[in-house]
Amino acid sequence: MAFPKNFLWGAASSATQIEGAWNEDGKCPSIWDVAGKHIENGQDCHTACDHYHRYKEDVALMKELGLKSYRFSVNWCRIMPEKGKVDPKGLAFYKNLTEELRAAGIEPLVTLYHWDLPVWADKEGGWKNPKIVEWFLAYVQTVVEALSDQVRYWMTFNEPQVFIMSAYVLGNFAPFQHAILSYKNCLRNMLLAHGKAILLIREAAKTTPKIGIAMAATTYIPDSEDEEGLRDAAERTFTSTVGEGSNGLYMDPIALGKPSKMLRRKLSAEDLKIISAPIDFIGVNVYQPANPLFKDSHYQADGLPKSMLGWVIDGRCLYWTIRQYYERYHLPIMVTENGMANPDAIGSDGLVHDEVRTTFLKEFLRGLKRAVDEGIPVVGYQHWSIMDNFEWCSGYGPRFGLIHVDYETQKRTIKESAKYYAAVIASNGEKL
Ligand code: GCO
Fold first, then answer.
1. Residue 85: CB partners within 8 Å, gap ≥ 6?
2. pLDDT score for 260
3. Ligand 1 atom closest to Cα of 214?
4. Three-class DSSP category at 387
5. Alpha carbon 214 to chain centroid distance?
6. Residue 216 CA, closest ligand 1 atom number
């Protein structure tokens, strides 16, 4: 089976990771702007790729690569620098960006929350405070009213596992807290904010919206493809609570209206009705399989290549994530992130020879094709990332981009892997 004609081949980014201009045009600081000592090598996100000032050049590069879609996030801190106060300059930036994308024939895919919580909201407890639902909805309303003439695709949240579990329990993402007793409250607040945002978007949008959520979809590759192997893998993927592998904990209430055991007493029937407001697709962010997390897995990671962050490279995990999510939730799937970090540099010929990323793409896109061939409705693939950027606490060392960024000069260079990806897009996935 061929890829659908309107398949969304694209790339992804997020506001904090590329925009810079952290205190311009009235923007308030986010929890990442003040992350200080938590970031490697004394780095920060204040300038990043200066995309705020260079978005036209960046959209021109996307057009050159032939992207059909571009996933980016809106930074809450630009839109509402104070509680209840809208900043028209912040809105103008995203209006200009979406218009530029439309003019280039690129479909904008908007994430409403990719972790840039305003410091004013954090001071009042952030995701621990039930009032955040109201604050978040006021922000969403403003964005949807301003952009929905140009934007059809919306994602409420990016990787709730990370901005709830890692940020408030493990304490390794901003705001770096160990508030385990608040974990269930944070989860409930996030789930209600998601469900209410869905209803709001459907009501306020000027063009019929397609709404989803992007999950940290770390899933388990079956040890064998017989019935037992498949059942065992899916079971581990959705019911394990190991780190970010807790797919069912976060997704079951949303897509099935069913809480896991842990949330049963926390969510009322009324809550669940709101939380399970119908969505149009599930976004999956896929990097590496979950298998190495399970000691009793037969999985052999030893011989497999790893990225510079130590993440195992195994292209099969894209296929299995798509299949397991589809079989459990029966919703169209969008790959909202997939990529790898590499210490890329410009060669003496002025080119970036990132063969490892090309090999990575070939392998993962074959997994994507297998899913499409089997008739699973996959609506798009967004490579992470459009350009090298600020990798949260790891700073600027790990380079995930299709486009190389020289952080001294802000010069952009299209990497060799991006040329390969452009050819795949031009053939609509025929030439992998
Ligand atoms: C995530 C985020 C991205 C990361 C990327 C690489 O998945 O953690 O959505 O912002 O940069 O995943 O780690």
1. none
2. 85
3. 9
4. strand
5. 5
6. 7
Strand ranges, E, within 46-160: 69-73, 107-113, 153-158
CATH topology of domain 8-426: TIM Barrel (3.20.20)
Q: Count Cβ atoms within 10 A of the Cβ of residue 123 and give its class: 0-12 exposed, 13-18 middle, 19 or more buried.
A: exposed
Mutate to test the pocket of ligand 1, among 392, 402, 405 (most ligand atoms within 8 A of CB): 392
Given 100, 107, 244, 337, the catalytic residue: 337
- Residues in CB range of 245: below 8 A, 6 or more apart: 218, 219, 220, 236, 237, 290, 293
Closest protein CA for atom 13 of ligand 1: 391
Domain residue extents for the chain: 8-426
Residues of the chain with pLDDT under 70: 241-245
pLDDT of residue 262: 87
Task: Report the amino acid identity of residue 49.
Answer: C
pTM of the model: 0.97
Give the tens place of pLDDT for each residue, 129-152.
999 999 999 999 999 999 999 999
Q: Is 337 a catalytic residue?
A: yes
Q: What is the pLDDT of residue 242?
A: 58
Tokens of 90: 């912040």
Q: Tell me whether residue 227 is one of the annotated catalytic residues.
A: no
Alpha helices (H) along 104-245: 119-123, 132-147, 160, 183-204, 227-239
Question: For residues 95 and 98, what is the distance between their CA atoms, to the nearest angstrom?
Answer: 5
